[in-house]
């Protein structure tokens, strides 16, 4: 009997490919860009398993043409690129890579927070552009981090890791989440707030929630108006959780002080996007989990997930519709 067939939509570290090649016939999209829709559809028609990235859209159209498909492994913790409900209706199991990227993503979140608050990228640009002609008392003065109030929206594993870092800066920690987390309240001194109260009280508003129908456009015009005019807004969730036009207006009108963004509604963000014209925006190209070790571990975990789903019909990292 021929081996099950797996398609990998991107070249990943060899250890991960090896795990799949041990049990399956594997083919890989080798180009250094996301797989074309056409090729993905073609592959879905014959694949038993798809190993995909968050840049690949796995929708009902694709799933309707995938008669052999048993598993879809997403090399990411977020899975808003996949129609999980449609997959589950067809008995196709979807997996993700939670846990192993939490600390790396929390490091980046904190780095972005510090960068935005203390204007680090702006200071670097200032120097490189030859603007440092003299020192002056308020030159590039930013917001203090130590002792400030951080409000974390979405207190999952990454939120907890961010809160842990915040304790080292003597920050007051507020959080908002679907469920209260009494154990974190005890362990980290985090205090639960309604969304509105968190927005009103926080110096740093950090958005970490997954993108779902409930969180789409969670932060918009009304929410920015509730924030302090000195607030720093950080988004490391998904771009679509924020109304970017409202964010732009809030920044231009001084309703908030600055924003640090690792995610955008359209990625890559177009270079003529209004947000990129503002000095009080720090923008990164979606690098939350991008450390060498973590990306390698994610690649391996995603391969193990797909292997286990195809061979055993199970995996510790199955995602379900919430
Ligand atoms: C990255 O954004 C991820 O979901 O892993």
CATH class of the largest domain equals Alpha Beta
Helicity range: 25-40%
Q: What would CATH call the homologous superfamily of the largest domain?
A: NAD(P)-binding Rossmann-like Domain
How would you classify the helix and strand content by structural class?
Answer: alpha/beta
C-alpha end-to-end distance = 38 Å
Secondary structure tally: strands = 12
CATH architectural type of the largest domain = 3-Layer(aba) Sandwich
Largest sheet: 7 strands, parallel
Strand order of the largest sheet: 8-7-6-9-10-11-12
Order of helix and strand elements from N to C terminus: EHEHEHEHEHHEHEHEHEHEHEEH
Give the integer mean of the pLDDT values.
97
CATH topology annotation of the largest domain: Rossmann fold
Bound molecules: glyoxylic acid
Radius of gyration, whole Å: 21 Å
Low-pLDDT stretches: none
Structural account:
This protein has 322 residues and is of the alpha/beta class. It folds into two domains: 5-100 and 293-312, 3-Layer(aba) Sandwich (Rossmann fold); 102-283, NAD(P)-binding Rossmann-like Domain (Rossmann fold). It has twelve helices and twelve strands. It has a seven-stranded parallel sheet, sandwiched between helices. A five-stranded parallel sheet has the order 2-1-3-4-5, with helices on both faces. Helix 3 links the parallel strand 3 (49-52) and strand 4 (71-74). Helix 1 (14-23) packs parallel to helix 12 and helix 5 packs across helix 7 (157-167). The relative contact order is 0.15. The structure holds glyoxylic acid.
């Amino acid at each position: 009997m021929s081996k099950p067939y797996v398609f990998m939509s991107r070249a990943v570290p060899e250890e991960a490919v090896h795990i799949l090649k041990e049990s399956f016939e594997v083919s890989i999209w080798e180009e250094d860009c996301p797989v074309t829709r056409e090729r993905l559809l073609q592959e879905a028609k014959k694949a038993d398993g798809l190993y995909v990235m968050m840049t690949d859209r796995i929708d009902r159209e694709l799933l309707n043409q995938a008669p052999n498909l048993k598993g879809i492994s997403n090399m990411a913790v977020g899975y808003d690129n996949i129609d999980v409900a449609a997959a589950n209706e067809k008995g196709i199991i979807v997996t993700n890579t939670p846990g192993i990227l939490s600390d790396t993503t929390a490091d980046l979140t904190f780095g972005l927070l510090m960068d935005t608050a203390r204007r680090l990228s702006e200071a670097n640009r200032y120097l490189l552009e030859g603007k440092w002609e003299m020192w002056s008392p308020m030159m590039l003065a930013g917001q203090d981090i130590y002792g400030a109030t951080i409000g974390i929206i979405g207190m999952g594993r990454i939120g907890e890791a961010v809160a842990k870092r915040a304790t080292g800066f003597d920050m007051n920690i507020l959080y908002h989440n679907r469920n209260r987390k009494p154990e974190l309240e005890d362990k980290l001194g985090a205090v639960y707030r309604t969304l509105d109260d968190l927005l009103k009280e926080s110096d740093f508003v950090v958005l970490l929630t997954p993108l779902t129908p409930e969180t789409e456009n969670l932060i918009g015009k009304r929410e920015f108006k509730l924030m302090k005019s000195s607030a720093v807004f950080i988004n490391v969730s998904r771009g679509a959780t924020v109304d970017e036009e409202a964010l732009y207006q809030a920044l231009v009108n001084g309703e908030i002080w600055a924003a640090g963004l690792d995610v955008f509604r359209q990625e890559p963000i177009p270079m003529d996007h209004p947000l990129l014209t503002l000095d009080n925006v720090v923008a990164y190209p979606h690098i939350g989990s991008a450390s060498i070790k973590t990306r390698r571990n994610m690649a391996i975990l995603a391969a193990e997930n797909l292997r286990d789903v195809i061979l055993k019909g199970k995996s510790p990292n199955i995602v379900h519709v919430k």
